[in-house]
Design a protein that fits this description.
Blueprint lengths: L3 H12 L5 H12 L8 H7 L5 H13 L1 E3 L6 E3 L42 H6 L11 E8 L3 E7 L6 E7 L1 H4 L2 H16 L8 E6 L5 E6 L6 H15 L5 H20 L2 E2 L8 E3 L5 E3 L6 E2 L2 H5 L6 H5 L17 H4 L6 H17 L9 H10 L5 H4 L7 H10 L11 H57 L1
Antiparallel strand pairs: 1-2, 3-4, 4-5, 5-7, 6-7, 8-11, 9-10
Helix pairs in contact: 1-4, 9-13, 9-17, 13-16, 16-17
Length: about 475
């Protein structure tokens, strides 16, 4: 079995990146199954080659000297002397810490109600790295981490279903503006019920007061990874991407955004990494944290949501909302946005899907961002001529990428109709081409047959003519 000292040692080893959480889990399992009960986890780490002597000594020195543990952002730091005027270097907030930690003092782990729940030693330890909601969700791995939020793959305790749990990143968890934005994201995600919008299963507060929500987890990655994979296959194998498959994905994005716009919601941060893909053709738009609610009444529709909070305009100090390279010019200039702003972003995504390149040239994201404000994109059919992109499809995409909102499609439905009309015309054109080719082949075969019959007649005449005399 393990001791509190073992857990403190393992926590420090993972925090300082001497061990990954997976390796920490493996080490703790070896400790729990060790035949010699007196061996510490440090001895087992050395015996099985998890850590070397110097690393073990450094960790033990921390334990001997004591350390602080920030309750806001969960960072570990040397024990600070003096009063409570220090700020945490992690979250920059006034430092609120546990008492000085030494092996003989209180555990850092949450207390479990053994009457209702009996966790394994592994689950018990890892609760300190992923705060648990009630009932507990078992952390499996980190799916993504950013400046605003972190997403974990977790397992529901009763159903065993694998889902995604999103929480605020530690520095943001104590900021009122971040909490307000995250609450809006939760509410909007919950209220937008559509087959192509990520479904929200549950939301609430963790034991440490941090907001969280549970959503569906897809196994197919996201659209960014899909485009990168297409590009790699094209460069390395000259494998032409399937236009029909890409269009099928994009039309589902159109359905999601058309529905959101009908509810008065503008996404404002649509991009390939915010579009999840499933292994059976599922396409889900997610990450509605920067969404603008144009008509709160239409969205909530008497569902008891705090309309004042949901409709309130949140400002972000000194920053532009959105992602450079995907946001339209008016959004980059902090001007008014509407559904045509999302249409511009969708044009960028469709451009990437068919050309495997961004619309604007530039060595860096900042350069591409500047070019997007002052120049027109290279027409898709000229960007990568080897892909043989239709000029008609190219013109549809360019209309969505117009600098002025009034020059773009008025609605996502108009954009979708233009694409569907093109696909129908393209299908008709290909069918006619195939029919014409078939007719030519049949005509050629008929000519061959007539010629052969004629030659056969001549040969018969040559053979039979002497006999008739």
């Amino acid at each position: 079995m393990y001791t509190e000292t073992d857990l403190n040692f393992l926590q420090l080893a993972i925090f300082f990146k001497h061990l990954t959480p997976e390796k920490g889990k493996e080490l703790l399992e070896k400790k729990c199954h060790a035949k010699e009960e007196g061996k510490s986890i440090a001895h087992i780490a050395l015996e099985y080659g998890f850590l070397d002597k110097k690393t073990i000594y450094d960790i033990q020195k921390w334990m001997e000297d004591g350390y602080d543990y920030c309750l806001n952002c969960r960072i570990i730091l040397p024990m600070l002397q003096g009063g409570g005027e220090n700020n945490c270097p992690g979250c920059k907030q006034p430092l609120q810490t546990q008492e000085k930690h030494k092996p003989s003092q209180t555990t850092l782990l949450p207390v479990f109600d053994e009457k209702n729940y009996s966790p394994s030693p592994i689950q018990n330890f890892f609760e300190d790295f992923l705060p648990k909601p009630k009932p507990p969700f078992f952390a499996v791995k980190i799916l993504g981490q950013g400046g605003f939020g972190s997403v974990y793959e977790v397992m529901e305790p009763f159903s065993g279903r694998m889902v995604a749990l999103k929480i605020l990143s530690p520095p943001k968890a104590v900021q009122d503006s971040a909490q307000k934005r995250f609450r809006r994201e939760i509410q909007i995600t919950a209220l937008l019920e559509h087959p192509n919008i990520i479904p929200l299963y549950e939301s609430g507060y963790l034991e440490n007061g941090n907001l969280y929500y549970i959503m569906r987890k897809l196994e197919g990655g996201n659209l960014r990874q899909y485009i990168d994979r297409l590009k790699k296959n094209w460069i390395e194998k000259k494998e032409r991407p399937s236009l029909s498959e890409s269009m099928e994905i994009f039309l589902k994005i159109c359905d999601a955004m058309s529905y959101a716009h009908s509810k008065g919601v503008i996404h404002r941060d649509l991009k390939p990494s915010n579009i999840a893909l499933g292994t059976f053709g599922e396409v889900l738009v997610l990450d509605w944290g920067l969404a603008k609610c144009k008509s709160v009444e239409d969205l909530v529709d008497g569902m008891g949501i705090n309309q004042a909070e949901l409709g309130e305009k949140i400002t972000y100090q000194g920053s532009t909302i959105g992602t450079p390279g995907y946001m339209p010019p008016e959004q980059a200039k902090n001007a008014e946005v509407d559904q045509r702003s999302d249409i511009y972003t969708m044009g960028v995504i469709l451009y990437e899907l068919v050309t495997l390149e961004r619309p604007f040239l530039g060595a860096s994201a900042q350069e591409r961002y500047m070019y997007s404000l002052i120049s027109k994109p290279i027409p898709p059919h000229l960007r990568n001529s080897d892909l043989k992109i239709s000029p008609k499809l190219s013109s549809i995409i360019l209309k969505a990428l117009e600098k002025e909102p009034q020059d773009r499609y008025a609605t996502v439905l108009d954009f979708k109709k233009a694409i569907l009309n093109y696909l129908e015309e393209d299908k008709k054109r290909k069918t006619e081409k195939q029919n014409l080719a078939m007719e030519k082949r049949l005509a050629f075969r008929w000519k061959i047959k007539v010629a052969l019959a004629f030659l056969l007649g001549i040969l018969l005449g040559i053979v039979l003519f002497p006999l008739l005399k």
